[in-house]
Design goal:
The chain is an all-alpha fold and 64 residues long. It contains 4 helices and no strands.
Length: 64
């Protein structure tokens, strides 16, 4: 994945989390590994938006 694709994917994840789009988050996480910093940030974002289901998805996502 190029750096442009990685940035677009991260932006897509942020938008899906902010909008509470659980199925979209699942799609964007499929086959992807997050580094610890990304994962922590996305979990915090999901917590701010009150989506426990997305928090759980992110916590279970594989890490680099």
């Amino acid at each position: 994945m190029s750096s442009e694709q990685a940035i677009a994917n991260m932006e897509g994840l942020q938008a899906a989390i902010s909008n509470g789009e659980t199925s979209r988050v699942k799609e964007l996480l499929a086959g992807r590994k997050l580094d610890e910093l990304q994962k922590d940030y996305l979990i915090d974002l999901a917590k701010l938006n009150g989506s426990q289901e997305i928090v759980t998805l992110l916590k279970n996502a594989p890490e680099k």
